[in-house]
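re: ur question from yesterday

yeah so i grabbed the chain u mentioned. its 335 aa long if i counted rite. heres the sequnce exactly as i have it in my notes:
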Amino acid sequence: MTIRENLEQMEREILSPYAMLSANSKGREKEEEQCDIRPVFQRDRDRILHSKSFRRLKDKTQVFLSPEGDHYRTRLTHTLEVSQNARTIAKALRMNEDLVEAIALGHDLGHTPFGHAGERALNRVCPFHFKHNEQSVRVVSILEKDGQGLNLTYEVRDGILKHEMELTAETLEGRIVRLSDKIAYIHHDMDDAIRAGILKESDVPAEIRNAIGQTCGERLDHFIHDIITNSRDKDDIIMSAEVEEAFLDIRKFMFANLYTNPQAKSEEGKAEVMVEILYDHYLKNMDKLPRDLLALRDKGDSDERLVCDHISGMTDHYAVAMYEDIFIPKGWDHY
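ran it thru and got these structure tokens back, copy pasting raw so excuse formatting
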């Protein structure tokens, strides 16, 4: 018996009857030989961790565009906090931690530069609906490894696609990541807003603070405990009615006071215009796209899709550099 088979047997003995067992995966789009050491979801986690798109997350906006400070979150640190929250919940509920971690690490790989501002801009100019969760699946299925994709399991791709609020993953592990994503950004975006001087703890309505905690850390802890308590021995991942109501209330508070705050979002209009101009430029100059993207034309992908692929893969810094290189005149330099 291989190490992988031993680990799969341990899952059968230890995990909840509601957990997704590695041995029961629906498999990959392209069949391949199993690893002798790692079960399939652990292998998926490793593939995501070593991908180029994962490394680029360190230079993509979470909430504050290019903040002047070392401690503001980026898309990468957001991803790591989602993973930590999800693993804590999964371990307590005896769910498959490898599956949870793979979904969490991959859920935002398709996010644009400049956060949701970049996403709004691409969605506005392209002829189809651009959504970062769908783009994340496209990244792992097609774009990574020069057009070969990572060939991840069905369950990981399903969890990545369905981490949005209006969707429901097929596995409980995917549903854990969906909630972990939301409680992560409510926690760390508030923490960043307090650091930036945009919000104070006392700005959070008293009824919310009394229900789920007086500080960011207390609220995060309350959410995690509530999810674990109410999901134990159930075929679903849920919050109590009271905490879910408080969750929705603080989310509305964050949208009203941070996500649409003129001070915090003062530069987003510029970022959106930049993304729109870059989209138009590349659509008129397709030869400027990388060869591996242009090769996807042979598989039927439209020019608009490939331009979205190129721009959504950019980091904030790279997008600015490309804009300056293309549109900002350079001084005469002759020796």
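noticed a couple things. The chain has a mean pLDDT of 95. also The chain has one domain: 3-314.
anyway ttyl
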